[in-house]
Design a protein that fits this description.
Length: 100
C-alpha cells in the first residue's frame, strides 16, 4: 500500500476516534434539536470544503513540512468536525425512530 493511502486512512480513522471521544467526553457540545444539528452539519461541510481547498493549495506550492502541518492542522480538525456532526445526526435519527 502507498504511504499516502496509509496516512489518509490513519487520519480518517484517528479523526473518527477523536469524534467519538469528544462526543462521549463532552455530550453538552451536541446541539439539542434537529435544526441545530443540521446547521452544525452544514458548518462542518463548509469547513471540510475549505480545508480541502487550502490543502490543495499547500500541496501545489510547498515543500514537505508545510504539507504535513496542513494535514494535521487543517484536514484533521475538519474530519473530526465532520464525523462528530455525523454522530449527532445519527443520534437524531435514532431518537426519531424510537419515538415512533
Amino acid at each position: 500500500m502507498n504511504g499516502a493511502v496509509v496516512f489518509t486512512l490513519s487520519a480518517a480513522f484517528g479523526a473518527a476516534l477523536l469524534a467519538v471521544w469528544l462526543d462521549a467526553r463532552f455530550p453538552s457540545l451536541a446541539p439539542r434539536g434537529l435544526t441545530g444539528r443540521l446547521v452544525a452539519a452544514g458548518a462542518a461541510w463548509l469547513l471540510a470544503d475549505g480545508a480541502a481547498r487550502l490543502f490543495e493549495r499547500v500541496l501545489a506550492t510547498g515543500p514537505v513540512e508545510p504539507r504535513a502541518l496542513a494535514a494535521l492542522g487543517v484536514i484533521l480538525p475538519a474530519l473530526v468536525a465532520t464525523f462528530l456532526t455525523g454522530l449527532w445526526l445519527l443520534r437524531s435519527l435514532g431518537t426519531a425512530a424510537s419515538t415512533r
